[in-house]
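Subject: Sanity check before I submit

Could someone independently write out the structure tokens for this chain? I want to compare against mine line by line before I put it in a report. The sequence has 268 residues.
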Amino acid sequence: MFDDSYGSEIIRAEEYLTADHPHHPPVERDAELHTIRDALRPLTKRKTPENLLVYGPPGSGKTTCVNHVFEALETEAGVKTVQINCWQYSTRPALLTEILIQLGYPAPRKGKPVDERLGKLREWLDRNRSVAIALDEFDQLEDKAAIVYDLHMLSQQTENKLGLVLISNIPPDGFVLDERSWSRLNCRAVEFKPYTAEELLAILKDRVEQAFRPGAVQPEVLELVADSVADNGGDCRDAFERLLQAGRRATREGAREVTPQFLEEIDG
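---
Independent answer below. Compare away.
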């Protein structure tokens, strides 16, 4: 019923056609990677880093680039990293609890006061090492000003330092956050613009080499996908999905390569 030959002729590694795949290094984002890396570099010397607001539309590479830099901080410099999606942990107590869990503390009992959780974080920073914290989907977080204040004060009061990376689809002027909080955080904005057709084409060429059998995708297919996606917001996840669906369609039909015909078929 489930023949192992499905997908074996054209697609050899579908995971490369997902935005979550850890691809090293990210393509067409050299300047943004350099900015993030340099802002957080002081953590490697137990010094105060620049906090960042990384913003741009969905699928522009924000989280991928932050993940890449965080992995290097862990493996090359021994800096602890914590990554939290604020869709899942949107309240102040939930966020602080998840930070503690990722730092290795057991989950505190429900009802524990916020001050006690902050005390545990302070204890960890005093006893261990510097930490970089990324808050993805920061615009979904409740009590933004309180969280900003909490984490800023922790970094000021402890031996080891804390770096904060806020990731959002919304630019700085779109937040309802008082001027004092932004000033306290001293946050540098890093904009991720939508991918252009040329950038998408470079990304797709890079991924196709890993995902497909050599010569299995006609060059025109990549150009058509890149142009179409660039005209509709530049979300690289859409480009991966279209290419994946075209590859699957070609496989089901017994084709030896992905041609523009299969793009037309999946677009219906």
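---
OP: Matches mine. For the report I'm noting this point. The first helix runs from residue 30 to 40.
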